[in-house]
Amino acid sequence: MSETKNLPPAHVAIIMDGNGRWAKAHHLPRSAGHREGAKAVRRVIEATPSLGIKYVTLYAFSTENWTRPQEEIDTLMDLLDKTIDEYQKSADKQNLRLWVSGAREPLPAHLLNKIDELVADTAKNTGLTVNLALNYGARQEILHAVNACLAEGKKSITQQDISAHLYQPNLPDPELLIRTSGEERLSNFLLWQAAYSEFYFTPVLWPDFDEKELKKAVLAYQHRARRFGGI
Ligand code: FPP
User: Fold this and answer.
1) Could you write out the DSSP letters of every residue in 54-90?
2) Which of 26, 62, 86, 105 sits at a 20 to 30 Å CA gap from 141?
3) Domains, the chain, ordered by start
4) pLDDT digit string (tens) for 27-64?
5) Is the C-beta atom of 102 inside 6 A of ligand 1?
């Protein structure tokens, strides 16, 4: 095997999967799985800066998640609300910046207001950027970018044009994309940005994911040979 080791990834994107299965395995309601999932989010946010990671994108709620039972949607929105409140208190101490990727409609107005406030309040922080993929769908994001280009009167569109009109145009593409719970698909996540990402799949359920698991994923990434189509 080659001795060359990649630098740690600057941007790690995570599909946080398996909350429901974790709850089932513990004979608990699905809401308990999501609550444990929120704890794993905090663990990962605390662990990332020491690993050299500058950006983390978390798939918190997809455009397809609206098809879940209303009770579960309410649990997830409530957890997000509480988590935003917590970070309103601690983000500056952690030097953490919040960005969001996704469509605003039909997210509840009170949640959008809180999120807008935290995004504005943390805009000057220089540590880890947490990009929350909320009401996010990658196909919708690409369409949004194309339509924005058309609205500017462009007759033909380049790759740079698309990249410049994504939800977060200043976010570098993720070098590493992690999905937990043994599922091995992209599920409408970062279709444009993940063109050259290294994928890391682990059977660990999201509520059990921690610093040790994140280090394993980063180490696996560092030993991958990245050729970007070359030899
Ligand atoms: C997948 O588990 C997870 C989600 C649908 C949402 C992720 C949400 C959290 C981690 C909690 C709150 C998030 C934040 C940012 C505070 P699943 O329900 O699909 O699990 P299953 O496939 O085992 O049923």
Assistant:
1) -EEEEEEEEGGGGGS-HHHHHHHHHHHHHHHHHHHHH
2) 86
3) 11-137+173-222 (3.40.1180.10)
4) 999 999 999 999 999 999 999 989 999 999 999 999 99
5) no
